[in-house]
């Protein structure tokens, strides 16, 4: 008796499901060979099933690659997706985690930033460490690929798919903006110091894609520490500030003279939005939408053409004030140490 068309379809579906399971099983059994951001080759006999992540952006990347179930512990700042991460053990800060707590979780691999001081101690105790630290859009795409390879997730279904979603989301945010936003001059402060997001950072690149101009040039590096006078002289049209800790916004000397402060063109991102905006990971499209909303709300009616000196939820605070006169120091910048909570 010949099988009916319905039966044939069911047979085809069953075969496809079986092939998918076989391929997934083979992927899990395949050895892993990757190179981390220290330039070190990392080899494992199979993709890790027990992972400790000590960097929020890497935690989010693992979860967006649909492998949250492999996480057995995270740093204190990892908090998304909340429904999953809230249940996991916290092992301290990403830069200085509790070594004992990490070891006790018996991870197959520990994901952490290049700047973490704990890698040598963890490796001395026999743990496998992978250090990754994205700072630009290209870095984010590369790191997603590395994590996808580490997890044994084919890039076509993993990092490449995820990057297309991110890229399309940033583009859509840019296309949603009205003409008045184009060429608006923006200063973005990632943390007190002030530490700024320069043109060369992933935040700066997102701002560029949104069609605005960053007053902190690429020549100063991704996250330079600035003299507050630099920002006063740059006199940006809009100021964006990441304020995850919700600490009091103590004004810098001279800031009251800036047009952005006088006209209340200031966006202070609270804990929820700040986490999204300052983390170089899979939520960059959402970050672009948050910044786009700020630009729409705060852009001046006409964008001035003055050049830069070098060539919870979002809060819309009231008019800020400042104490102290303008400093006479020349603007300076130094290599930044951006807080681990922001990554």
TrEMBL record:
Segments for region (Disordered): 299-323
Database matches in InterPro entries: ABC_Transporter_SBP, ABC_transptr_periplasmic_BD, Vit_B12_bind_prot
Keyword Calcium: no
Keywords: Signal
KW 4Fe-4S (keyword) present: no
GO terms classed as biological process: cellular response to iron ion
Domain Fe/B12 periplasmic-binding: 50-303
Database matches in SUPFAM superfamilies: Helical backbone' metal receptor
Domain of life: Bacteria
Signal peptide (residue range): none
PANTHER family, per database record: MOLYBDATE-BINDING PROTEIN MOLA (PTHR30535:SF34), VITAMIN B12-BINDING PROTEIN (PTHR30535)
Identification of the protein by name: Iron complex transport system substrate-binding protein
């Amino acid at each position: 008796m010949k099988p009916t068309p319905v039966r044939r379809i069911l047979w085809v579906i069953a075969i496809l499901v079986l092939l998918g399971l076989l391929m997934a099983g083979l992927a899990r059994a395949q050895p892993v060979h990757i190179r981390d951001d220290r330039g070190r080759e990392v080899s494992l006999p199979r993709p890790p099933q027990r992972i400790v992540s000590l960097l929020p952006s890497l935690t989010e990347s693992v979860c967006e690659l649909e492998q949250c179930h492999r996480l057995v512990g995270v740093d204190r700042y990892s908090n998304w997706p909340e429904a999953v991460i809230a249940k996991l053990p916290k092992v301290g800060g990403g830069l200085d985690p509790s070594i004992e707590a990490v070891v006790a979780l018996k991870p197959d691999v520990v994901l952490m930033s290049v700047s973490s001081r704990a890698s040598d101690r963890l490796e001395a105790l026999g743990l496998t460490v992978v250090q990754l630290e994205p700072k630009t859009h290209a870095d984010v795409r590369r790191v997603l690929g590395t994590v996808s390879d580490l997890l044994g997730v084919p890039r076509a279904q993993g990092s490449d798919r995820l990057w297309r979603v991110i890229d399309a989301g940033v583009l859509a945010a840019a296309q949603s903006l009205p003409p008045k936003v184009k060429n608006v001059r923006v200063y973005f402060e990632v943390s007190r110091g002030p530490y700024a997001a320069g043109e060369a950072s992933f935040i700066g690149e997102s701002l560029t894609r949104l069609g605005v101009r960053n007053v902190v040039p690429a020549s100063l590096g991704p996250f330079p520490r600035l003299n507050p006078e630099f920002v006063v002289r740059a006199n940006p049209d809009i100021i964006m500030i990441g304020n995850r800790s919700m600490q009091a916004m103590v004004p810098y000397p001279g800031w009251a003279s800036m047009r952005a402060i006088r006209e209340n063109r200031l966006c202070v991102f609270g804990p929820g939005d700040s986490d999204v905006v300052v983390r170089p990971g899979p939520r960059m499209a959402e970050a672009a939408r948050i910044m786009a909303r700020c630009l729409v709300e705060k852009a001046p009616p006409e964008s001035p053409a003055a050049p830069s000196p070098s060539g919870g939820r979002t809060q819309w605070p009231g008019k800020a004030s400042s104490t102290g006169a303008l400093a006479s120091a020349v603007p300076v910048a130094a290599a930044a140490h951006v807080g681990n909570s922001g990554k």
